[in-house]
# Entry
Amino acid sequence: MSSVSGAPELIRADGLRLDGRKFDELRPLRIEANVLNRADGSAYIEWGNNKVLAAVYGPREVHPRHLQNAARAIVQAKYNMAAFSVSERKRPGPDRRSQEITKVISEAFTNVVFVDQFPRTTIDCYMEVLQADAGTRCAAMTAASVALADAGIPMRDFLVAVASGRVGGKIVLDLNKEEDNFGEADLPMGIAPRTNEVVLLQMDGHLTYDEFEQALAYNLQAAQVIAKIQREALLRRYAVAAQESLAESLSARGIDLPSTGAPSSSTGINGGI
Ligand code: ADP
# Structure
């Protein structure tokens, strides 16, 4: 990422960003857990103009067998951008960028999943970007983390991913496409929010030490907000599931459960921090 001549002014005269956000404000973020019937676990995320589906299968047998690890499970992530996810058609199939993202996401999840509990198996985690607007690797990881929890995969923490960067000389949280294209640096991170452990760090462009510290602080602060939205997505899903199963067992005994107004399954959240 480099500053481009002829780039638009990314910080407005009133001190806000082009889309009206403050420097430390996230784009609107919404997560839905358990959206696919076939997968063991799944999630859908809308983060700004990004839309990503995540599906988890496993732990299951490894194919090809030579990839098996006798001591632990392997976590195989697969990040893919749909051909229709960007305004110019993207050439379908894997490219160097998606292979790199797939590799770093696999490594990040291997750090949080209790892989020792499932030797010789694979946990497959597919992430399909349906609409892309910068920050798709972060959106994909954040959704995949919910899908893993939905699949009942034991993890020592959620994994939250978020990026900060430098735009028009200012450090800002959660870059959109224009900021990503014309900004000076981007720092996506995967964070375990309980301990603030950083399990993935990439940097595109250059930051001074102080700028890095500021971007790190924004990412850590945002990770707490995002982790709360992840938890709420799972709670909404399982509150509904628990109510349905209770109603089913009561109705088998001829008792009707009074309606309590189950929590809404869809809540738009604008997560300024
Ligand atoms: P991230 O999406 O994680 O920020 P990048 O910084 O590599 O990853 O990409 C930024 C944005 O550029 C993407 O979100 C997407 O909107 C766009 N983009 C990436 N790859 C392509 C591509 N092959 N064709 C068109 N647009 C792309």
